[in-house]
Design goal:
Helix content: 10-25%
Number of helices: 4
Distance between the termini: 16 Å
Radius of gyration: 15 Å
Strand content: 25-35%
Number of strands: 10
Strand order of the largest sheet: 5-4-3-6-1-7-10-9
Order of helices and strands: EEHEHEEHEHEEEE
Structural class: alpha/beta
């Protein structure tokens, strides 16, 4: 089974504002695309809707929702953690949000890929308060700042201890 989680957060753990990212970092978006391309991405309904209800190209899009009647063009729909775990037995699963979905899959993930932004942003969604003691950093890559990517950030890979 292979489950990775990927997200970006600021120093306070903020991951969203009004169902969108509170910052603009094109290099992080390119990194996200590179990490998830040709993989199965699993997300909650609100995350799906934050993309305008459009599937992420060149990825198998899966939405996890409690709504038994939910349907989405261009994406598969599942309704439980167990269905997600069955998917992960067949292919690498990339959990891409939101907060409730990260919390649900936390104890099943074997890799975390986190963009840590060294800034504080206003937001209404934070990464869940979870136990990080079972994780170790295995790789860290400093982000490149420029006029389009004005914040200091780094890509941090974690593996379960």
């Amino acid at each position: 089974m292979s489950i990775s989680m990927i997200w970006a957060m600021d120093e306070n753990g903020t991951i969203g504002r009004d169902n969108a990212l509170p910052w603009r970092l094109p290099r992080d978006m390119a990194f996200f695309k590179e990490q998830t391309l040709n993989k199965t991405v699993l997300m909650g309904r609100k995350t799906w809707e934050s993309f305008g209800g459009k599937s992420l190209p060149q990825r198998n899009n899966i939405i996890l929702t409690r709504d038994p009647h939910y349907a989405a063009a261009g994406a598969g729909v599942i309704h439980s953690l167990e269905e997600g775990l069955r998917l992960a037995e067949q292919e690498q699963l990339m959990i891409i949000g939101g907060a409730e979905i990260y919390k649900l899959f936390w104890s099943h993930a074997d890799q975390l890929i986190v963009t840590r932004i060294e800034e504080v942003f206003a937001g209404d969604t934070v990464f869940p308060a979870l136990d990080w003691s079972g994780w170790k950093i295995v790789r860290e890559i400093p982000g490149i700042t420029d006029e389009k990517n004005p914040y200091r950030y780094r890509f941090v890979y974690y593996e379960r201890v």
